[in-house]
Amino acid sequence: MADQIDDDQAFEMPLPAADFSFLVSSLMFQAQVDMGLLQFGEGEDQPQPNLSRAKHSLDLLGVLDEKTRGNLSVEEQRLLENGLTELRFRYVQVLDELKKNPRPQTSTSQTGNEPPLIITPGGGKGTKSD
Fold it and tell me: Is position 46 within any domain?
């Protein structure tokens, strides 16, 4: 048992410092992912933007900005204010773009009659009726 714990710890990456800058950066990263600004996968594998979650992250950053005003270092204040300003601007851009060119909500076939695909325990794709 002790050997397995040692093996698991050997592959673990070190965690970054738990500081204010990391907290702000984490929320900013999450907002960017939720706005679809960071791409993972290709084509139809990319997740759809989730603007309600992105707005929630922006709102949390706004709360941090309001509640910490006057208590941050110059670098921390710049990170928070500049990041929040940029992300709010990008949020409006993404919102406008989605209004002009709405993305399809699902990547199902043209007919929509096929059962949904699921990932099987072996990692393959099957249908819900299998």
Answer: yes
In a domain, 47, yes or no: yes
Could you tell me if residue 85 is inside a domain? yes
Count how many domains the chain has. 1
Evaluate if pTM is beyond 0.70.
no
Residue 22, domain extent = 17-104
d(CA 34, CA 38): 8
Provide the sign of the torsion angle of the four alpha carbons 121, 124, 125, 130, taken in this order: negative
**Is residue 3 situated within a structural domain?**
no
Low-confidence ranges of the chain (pLDDT < 50): 106-112, 116-118, 120, 122-130
Tens digit of each residue's pLDDT (9 = 90 or more) over 68-91? 999 999 999 999 999 999 999 999
Give start and end residues of each alpha helix (H) in the chain. Answer: 2-10, 20-34, 51-68, 74-100
pLDDT at 125: 47
Q: Measure the CA angle with vertex 7, ends 3 and 12; round to 5°.
A: 145
Calpha distance 51→118 (Å, rounded): 26
Q: Which residue has the tokens 């794709």?
A: 125
Residues 80 and 100: their CA atoms lie apart, in Å, by 30
